[in-house]
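hi! just following up on the protien thing from before. the input was this:
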Amino acid sequence: MNSGVPGAFNFRTGDLSHVDTIKDRLKSGKTVVGTAGSIATDVGVLADSGFDFLLFDTQHTPVEIKQLKPAVEVVSGKAATPIVRVSDNRPDLICFALDIGARGIVVPMVNTPEEAARMVRSCKYSPLGDRSNSGERGVWGRKFGNYREYLDYVNDELLIIPMIETRRAVDDIDNILSVDGIDVLLIGPSDLSIELEVPLDYESATYQRGLDKIVEGCQRHGVVPGMYFIPPTMDPNFFVDKGFKFFTMPWAAWATEGIKDGLAGIKR
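and the predicted 3d structure came back as:
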């Protein structure tokens, strides 16, 4: 079976050597670091720069999921994993993101175990979920003996990342984390701080206690705690030491410094 989609993986004839190991790194306790990708950025360069993933956002950007297809195709087969944040916990939006090649899905404002279970089922193929099949999608980096093997491999390797952003979700964290299939529980720092009545005060004791409760819940259930972004005035290693193993960092300042260093070595 061949989807006929450019860049789609053909399980009979594919000969791709790249293996996506982001789940292996997370399972082994390593910290994975990503950055924002966009249709206005040279994502090919970013995807081979050392980041573990590129996170494409369609919730707080004026970009529709299907507009991301060329950028996600560029990233496919490179070192960084393409992840898409959809704007709502809807099967059609999740399907659109997966069909363009996303290998991870972020859903915002997941507040209950029922909502978490609905997200998981939208991401996974039968019998573990309800995802509609439209042929091989994305680059999964290996040959498959048959189509069932492909489906099972995608089910296993796809990163499922609900966001926890409300007091209601924090209060129900154990039930949410009991849903099978969640890989990373991702904190939305701004919204969570607002919910905890300390808006953007990321160093406050109230906010830090909320983070600790989330980390402790994740550890009880074998789920990786993550931060959508590290607050700009804070040290990423503070959060790593606290237990967070998945987050994004801005890349522009690092890139600027690298360009400056390169130019400094040229006689001008």
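The longest strand covers residues 32-37.
Residues 1-18 have pLDDT under 50 and may be disordered.
cheers
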